[in-house]
Amino acid sequence: MKASIFYHSVSGYTKDMAEVIAQSMNNSSGMEAKAFSITDYDADWAKESQCVIIGTPIYMATLSGELKLWLEKVAPTFGLAGKLGGAFATEQYIHGGGEAGIRVILDHLLCYGMLTYSGGGSKGKPVIHLGPVSVNQYAEDCRATFEIYGQRMAQKAMELFA
Ligand SMILES: Cc1cc2nc3c(=O)[nH]c(=O)nc-3n(C[C@H](O)[C@H](O)[C@H](O)COP(=O)(O)O)c2cc1C
């Protein structure tokens, strides 16, 4: 089963975390995940993906403008209705706006008819409320949560679609 993890990234933090999620999903039996920049991606892979996860750098306490435009113009061309969706963010500061950015991405995915998911508190600790957020200076510490998020998203995709 295919999965696509899209990111907007200028200095690489969001790209790194997208790759952590993809690698973690690929460790789940039956999943094939690829991470793509929003400017360089395989549209056929995205259309065939049952799970689509989208990551943003936090700009002005919300998602980046470039990602918002991409969510409006490009994401709907992938036929997202009924697929599993998720979101993540990277930020420079604790309380820099990560959850706010994630919520806006999830709003878009809901508008496209996706089944949005994070695992929430249903999987025990770490509780990943809306989606994982990495704070740059603690990025190494945050990796483990992104790995667990990838496992949980892969597990849910397999439950729903395998
Ligand atoms: C225009 C701009 C606005 C930003 N605004 C915020 C912000 O509101 N809160 C925050 O924590 N970090 C902010 N940052 C920092 C980025 O969110 C952070 O460095 C992010 O990890 C960059 O991701 P990237 O390396 O994938 O490009 C801002 C960065 C830029 C360039």
Largest beta-sheet details: 6 strands, parallel
Number of structural units classed as domains: 1
CATH topology: Rossmann fold
What small molecules does this complex bind? Answer: flavin mononucleotide
- Low-pLDDT stretches are none
Which sequence of SSEs, written as H and E, runs from N to C?
A: EHEHEHEHEEH
Number of helices: 5
Mean pLDDT over the residues: 98
Beta-strand content: 15-25%
The CA-CA distance between the termini, in Å, is 7 Å
Shape: globular
**Helicity, as a percent range:** 40-55%
Overall CATH architecture: 3-Layer(aba) Sandwich
Q: State Rg.
A: 14 Å
- Please identify the structural class as seen in this structure: alpha/beta
Give the full name of the CATH homologous superfamily.
Flavodoxin domain
What is the CATH class?
Alpha Beta
User: What is the number of strand segments?
Assistant: 6
What does the secondary structure layout of this molecule look like, with pairings?
Layout: E1 2-7, H1 13-26, E2 32-37, H2 43-48, E3 51-57, H3 65-73, E4 84-91, H4 98-111, E5 115-116, E6 133-135, H5 139-161
Parallel strand pairs: 1-2, 1-3, 3-4, 4-5, 4-6
Flavin mononucleotide (FMN) is lined by residues 9-15, 57-61, 90-93, 96-97, 136.
